[in-house]
Design goal:
With 323 residues, the protein is α+β, with helices and mostly antiparallel strands. It has four helices and 16 strands. The chain has a single domain (2-322), classed as Lipocalin (Beta Barrel). The chain is elongated.
């Protein structure tokens, strides 16, 4: 039962942003699938970008590579906050059916719940048919369980996992990832002579999927399906002291994510019911770096780090470490 509660809590944290925004997306379908896709693409952008940043975070808490047979097991969580620049967007100029009744900007899902933009059909400019509201969803948290095992040739393999869990009509989600870390210490004589100094490279991949029920009332019902693939490569530098260690990592991360509203919806002014009426894709990529500290007490450890970028990330965790 405890495990199930943990998994459900994980779904709430990871998919909470979608839960708060899904009604807004469906409401905009009243203006047709073309305009709904254009508007939803900008409305959900903070979620797509925060998801990508989080999936590439939290892979390491040390630049040191485990010895053969050494391992660690860590429960970690990454917290991301959208910048103010992502709380609103310019209403697309190429809408076919809708027009804004409240100016040229509209709130994204990261915008305040007090913000809203009303839309009318272009042929009836004074009659509101849909309202886009901010969801106040400007933060994103992704918890996960990670493990690493030392291999020959100064290499360790890493994995992260959140089991697939379903909870009634609420939804389902799961996540997994694989990574490799390789020490560069023996290749550089200066670094090799300093036992406390660590230098390594890391490459990692994470896959995420979720599905949430969407109730569109009179126009239909279905699911909001999310999938994402994230890749990152980093150079890690660290200093390991007896109780505390410091680390930094710098590199590039890339994420491709898809958001699809799947189901049959009776969209006004469209002759046939639309299956999968909204389909969005985001690609994000950026260089970033982080700084962190790990406190080790016997085989137990606590760590925290901060990543600098357009979307800053705070990561923390607790784990067991051996060799």
């Amino acid at each position: 039962m405890k495990k199930k509660l943990i998994y459900i809590f994980s779904i709430i944290l990871i998919t909470g942003s979608s839960l708060q925004a899904q009604d807004q997306i469906i409401d905009i379908l009243k203006g047709g699938t073309h305009d709904a896709n254009l508007i939803a693409n900008e409305y959900l952008r903070p979620y797509g970008e925060m998801l990508g940043v989080n999936l590439n975070s939290g892979w390491y808490n040390s630049a040191k590579v485990h010895k053969i047979g050494g391992f660690d097991l860590t429960l970690t969580a990454s917290y991301t906050k959208a910048p103010d620049s992502k709380k609103s967007f310019q209403v697309p100029s190429n809408l076919k059916s809708l027009e804004s009744m409240d100016g040229s900007t509209a709130p994204t899902m990261a915008g305040s719940k007090d913000q809203q933009t009303r839309f009318a059909l272009q042929e009836f400019p004074n009659t509101e048919i849909a309202t886009l509201k901010g969801a106040g969803a400007n933060t994103f948290v992704s918890p996960m369980l990670q493990a690493a095992v030392g291999l020959p040739y100064h290499t360790e393999v890493m994995g992260r996992f959140m089991p697939r869990v379903e909870y009634g009509d609420f939804g389902k989600a799961y996540m997994w990832g694989l990574g490799l870390k390789h020490s560069l210490k023996d290749y550089i004589p200066f670094v090799k002579r300093l036992p406390f100094l660590q230098l390594s490279v890391l490459g990692a991949y994470t896959h995420f999927e979720s599905s949430l029920g969407v109730d569109g009332g009179d126009i239909g019902a279905g699911n909001l399906e999310t999938s994402a693939n994230a890749y990152t490569g980093r150079l890690l530098i660290g200093a390991n002291l007896p109780v505390v260690s410091f680390y930094t990592g710098m590199g590039y991360g890339n994420t491709k994510s898809n958001f699809d509203v799947v189901g049959d919806f009776d969209v006004p002014n469209e002759p046939e019911a639309s299956a999968n009426p909204i389909s969005l894709a985001y690609t994000t990529g950026a260089f970033d770096f982080n700084v962190g500290m790990r406190l080790r007490l016997a085989i137990f450890s606590l760590h925290a780090d901060y990543s600098v970028g357009e979307y800053s990330v705070i990561t923390g965790g607790i784990g067991i470490n051996f060799r």
